[in-house]
């Protein structure tokens, strides 16, 4: 719900990280490290 929380960045990065995690589980840790 859009209650005014500035989570646009998280909203864009979360699905990307999830995609990478599903595509390459070992890469998920590397991506999280970059974040």
UniProtKB/TrEMBL annotation:
Report the superkingdom from the record: Bacteria
Put simply, this protein is called ISPsy19, transposase
